[in-house]
Amino acid sequence: MTYHELTISNALALLSDRKITSTELTRALLDRIKQHDDRIKAFITVDEDMAMACAQKADQKIAKGQMAALTGVPIALKDLLCTRGMKTTCGSKILNNFVPEYDGTVVSKLKDAGAVIIGKTNLDEFAMGSSTENSSIKVTANPWNTDYVPGGSSGGSAAAVAAGFCCGSLGTDTGGSIRQPASHCGVVGLKPTYGRVSRFGLVSYASSLDQIGPITKDVKDAALMMNVICGNDKKDSTSARVAVPDFTKAFDQFDAEGLKGMSIGIPGEYLSVAGIDPDVEKVFLNAKQIFKDLGAEITEISLPHTEYVVAAYYIIAPCEASSNLARFDGVKYGFRHEGTDDLIDMYKKTKSKGFGAEVKRRILIGTYALSAGYYDAYYGRASQVRTLIMEDFANAFKTCDFILSPVAPAPAFKIGENVDDPLTMYLSDIFTLSANMAAIPGISVPAGYSSNGLPVGIQMMANRFDENSLLRAGYGFEKAVHLEKRFPEL
Ligand code: GLN
Prior knowledge:
Layout: H1 8-16, H2 22-40, E1 43-46, H3 48-63, E2 74-78, H4 105-112, E3 116-121, H5 155-162, E4 168-173, H6 179-185, E5 188-191, E6 211-216, H7 219-229, H8 249-257, E7 263-267, H9 268-271, H10 278-293, E8 297-301, H11 309-324, H12 343-354, H13 357-370, H14 376-396, E9 402-406, H15 422-427, H16 433-437, E10 442-449, E11 455-462, H17 467-480
Parallel strand pairs: 2-3, 2-4, 7-8, 7-9
Antiparallel strand pairs: 1-3, 4-6, 5-6, 5-10, 9-11, 10-11
Helix pairs in contact: 2-3, 5-6, 7-17, 8-17, 11-13, 11-14
The structure holds glutamine (GLN).
């Protein structure tokens, strides 16, 4: 039995048939982490005792015939999600000793569904980055080739799934941080519609863009996790009051009708973006052909404000970040610089020592852009552009069910290659930022490989609350695409 290859649905079937126990499965994955995670560095915290105790509890439930949606299944969490009694660092020195008093809503929901929380995964500090190199704790490696980045900022969560350290994980996505690392690590990543999932207990980066979502081995598992984590929450006033469907129904629909009647939009602007890697283009064109063969209709669409997306995002996100991160001042949480002269000196030294370079850069940009006299020119202007981007998508979805695009312009790059070049890093977010700006859902599904053997995904984006189209199309695509190797050998 290769425990580490089990998807969530495989694991649930074996657990309910009593072919395996959660204790065995959890033990096997913990051993695999012990054996390989010193090279991959996906985890910041692994609490073996807690995980094993949870697994035993799950086995007792199963024995009593009380299985819930994820009973006994080991799941990892991005270390930006508050976990009661378990360190939550956000990849930052400023929170290196922060232990929350409560669980985030998604964490409670996972626990209520019987999931075994196996550990907390590495990330770019406060989710700011696209490679997980901005973590102040460690740099995660891509399990397919440890010289390369896993993508980011949920690089630890994506690497943990690809490496078979857990059956699935949660990441967060403010501008692509679920979809892009999923693409680079050869796994599935779904960013839900803004408001689908409660953000209570998620440490905020940019509150109007942040969403929590699943990273899994296949599309079916993404639906299984969505069924658990979605829903209105009175603790998050931005969580939507919409009914949560059974997301797995999308698969029945595909099995019955295929993609008949579905129309796919290809944005002309995306293919003229400078510097698309030929390997990415090849994978994308192949995906387009697969969708055609599946019976979908392909139409050319236009997203005319694409060229302003990166600029607008990199004003809005830092503005919100500068406001959100003001709370980390050495008084209430985590690290405090000792031996300072007075309160102001303590603030200064705590923030100087506690925050890393990228976080400081964003705080400075955001504070500057929000300051009196500049607000209208920067934040106000960027917000207007955001409205135009939303309208682009609203128009596009009048003529198509979902939009197909690459996830990132290039496959994973080498660790260290872009780390001193923030602009290149920001520009690589071009295809993923829009979904957050427009508050729509997006999914990344494995679609092929680069010439040096690294995974490359494709992205689909749909209208608000239409995760169903993404899951239906993603599931169909996954069945049709031929991938020689689903998981890396460690
Ligand atoms: N790369 C983007 C940024 O650095 C997106 C990060 C994210 O989605 N958390 O802001």
